[in-house]
UniProtKB/TrEMBL annotation:
Entry keyword annotation includes Methyltransferase: no
Name of the protein this chain belongs to: HTH araC/xylS-type domain-containing protein
Signal peptide limits: none
SMART domains assigned: HTH_ARAC
The keyword DNA-binding is annotated on this UniProt entry: yes
Length: 196
């Protein structure tokens, strides 16, 4: 028997968004296509780290992400109702299309009608399915996603609040501030000052 260990490091917000509703262990039984993908990724990682060709660490890291995605796909397919939030939305074709649209153009001035068109469903169907799978409405999700995008820029950059606000879809510093405080519990300025 071979036991391989590893870990993924996520920031607190990313962990909450991606892994917050997953069980502590996801068992992928042998013989499944996901198990084959995991086995392939582990073998490829082993080759990269054993032989150390150029960029081996980078390739190994990306292979590990591919492996994680296969495990998440398996879990979502096996128990789609056991997961909520962003990962669960990927299991619903209409919600997945809307999530893709929001992630591709977060600064766009989206309406529920626009998003319903992106998901090829009516507004009421989108609202119900999005809330049922993701746990919040599409515009609430968009607000949180925008704040997720703004946070590292506030913490790590030197851009003005107005520039960050515009880049993530808010027309003014005050609009960003209201949304940021609602999601993060502090103002953007206080958040930036706490960087370290």
């Amino acid at each position: 028997m071979l036991l391989v260990g590893g870990r993924f490091s996520f920031g607190a917000r990313a962990q909450e968004l991606l892994l917050g509703t997953l069980p502590p262990v996801v068992h992928v039984p042998a013989g499944t296509s996901q198990a084959e993908a995991v086995e392939w990724a582990l073998a490829a990682i082993d080759r990269e780290l054993l032989h150390r060709p150029p960029a081996s660490t980078l390739v190994a890291e990306h292979l590990a992400v591919v492996m994680l995605i296969h495990v998440l796909r398996f879990h979502l397919a096996r128990a789609p109702r056991a997961v909520s939030g962003w990962p669960a939305g990927l299991a619903d074709p209409a919600v997945a299309a809307v999530l893709r649209a929001l992630h591709e153009a977060p600064a766009r001035s989206w309406t529920v009608a626009d998003l319903a068109r992106a998901g090829a469903v009516c507004r009421s169907t989108l609202a119900a399915r999005f809330k049922d799978t993701v746990g919040q409405g599409p515009l609430g999700y968009l607000m949180r996603w925008r704040i997720e995008l703004a946070s590292p820029r506030l913490r790590d950059g030197t851009e003005t609040l107005a520039a960050i606000a515009r880049s993530v879809g808010y027309g003014s510093e005050s609009a960003l501030s209201v949304a940021f405080k609602r999601v993060m519990g502090v103002s953007p300025r206080d958040y930036r000052e706490r960087r370290g």
